[in-house]
Fold this protein.
Amino acid sequence: MSFQVDRSPFDPESGFEYYICFKPAVEVDGDEVRSRVSIEAAISLSETGDVADLAFMLPKDCRSEHSLCYLKRDPYASCVENRVFIALPGLSGDAVLRVPATLELDQAGRIVAIEINGCLPKTSTFNPAHA
């Protein structure tokens, strides 16, 4: 099973937004989502802007086997203690970003999706020293 990944068109103000659905075979409808939890995620983007992998720390309320049931079914996802690591097949990342994200939970408390908000890399203020 591979996760469904949707990407918004590029917005110069906020960059890309991504929606990664963990629930198999069906899209998460708005009425299925009963709660949202704000988190911070680290994502790796390919040169074309696709998500190659992501990692995030689970909030305390989302650490049960039941909450993780959709994630644990996928061979590309691994849960180590309170962290989740997901590698999307066929992609390799060129840049890593820390971004705000939102976990979406269904009425049973299972994590069904993650929404990654505003992926716009900040420009560097690094100036190399001149000899």
User: Anything to note?
Assistant: The longest strand covers residues 33-45.
